[in-house]
Amino acid sequence: MAYILIFISAVFVNNIVLAQFLGICPFLGVSKKIDTALGMSGAVAFVMTIATIFTYIIQKTVLEPFQITFLQTIVFILIIAALVQLVEIILKKISPALYQALGVFLPLITTNCTILGVAIMVIQKDFNMLESVVFAISTAIGFGLALILFAGIREQLALVKLPKSMEGTPIALLTAGLLAMAFMGFSGIVK
User: Fold this and answer.
1) What is the C-alpha separation between 141 and 166, in angstroms, rounded?
2) Residues 6+ apart with CB under 8 A from 39
3) Collapsing DSSP states into helix, strand and coil, what is residue 13?
4) How far apart, in whole angstroms, are the C-alpha atoms of residue 80 and residue 72?
5) Cα 75 to Cα 58: distance, rounded to the nearest angstrom
6) Cα separation of 34 and 20, whole Å?
């Protein structure tokens, strides 16, 4: 039951983008087309899950035993950057087609604060390894859901005649606010 609560909470109630406001840059920047939103969602899900596993292991086996948890943020950033580079190299060798599909998004993930945010939240919430993985996957699904919904709305807005002052960023921010309010409707489900 705890894993289901983690899933519902991460996807709907405490959505990383719409409730916690992490990952706003890719949310606004990569959400003009559903295709790019899907690619970014997949890449974030993959890297977020792997980064959470590695950062959790480093936290529990190195930082906490040696009492150097004050280095957590810088160590996590280095781990995430190294993992993204490693994934990029492996994909280039093993699957050039997948590398071409995700190639643009992988460097963007290095600076995506949702990855670092999830790695730190897992430690703050004192999750075990399995709960951490469930949380990372659920958060990635929530990020992807918000991104794809927003991209679909923006594609439809591109077909509508808007006042000149509302075109582009203003309507995108207004739409993001309305989407966040819609997700607030889930707040009574889980604490």
Assistant:
1) 30
2) 101, 102, 104, 105
3) helix
4) 12
5) 9
6) 23
Question: For residue range 1-32, what is the model confidence (pLDDT) as tens digits?
Answer: 899 999 999 999 999 999 999 988 888 888 88
Closest CA to 51 of 116, 105, 146, 98: 116
Residue 25 is encoded by which pair of tokens?
Answer: 């840059």
Taking the C-alpha atoms of residue 179 and residue 131, their distance in angstroms, rounded to an integer, is 28
What is the DSSP secondary structure assignment for residue 166, as one 8-state letter?
G
- Longest Cα–Cα distance of the chain, Å, equals 60
Q: Which residue has the tokens 């997949």?
A: 42
Q: Is 21 helix (H, G, I), strand (E, B) or coil?
A: coil
Q: How is residue 165 annotated by DSSP? A: G
87 contacts 109 by C-beta, under 8 angstroms: no
Reported pTM: 0.89
How high is the mean pLDDT of the chain?
A: 90
* pLDDT tens for each residue of 98-144: 777 666 677 777 778 899 999 999 999 999 999 999 999 999 999 99
Q: Of the candidates 18, 123, 140, which has an alpha carbon nearest to the alpha carbon of residue 61?
A: 123
> What are the backbone angles phi and psi of residue 16, rounded to the nearest 5°?
-60, -35
* Secondary structure, 3-state, 58-93: HHHHHHCCCCCHHHHHHHHHHHHHHHHHHHHHHHHH
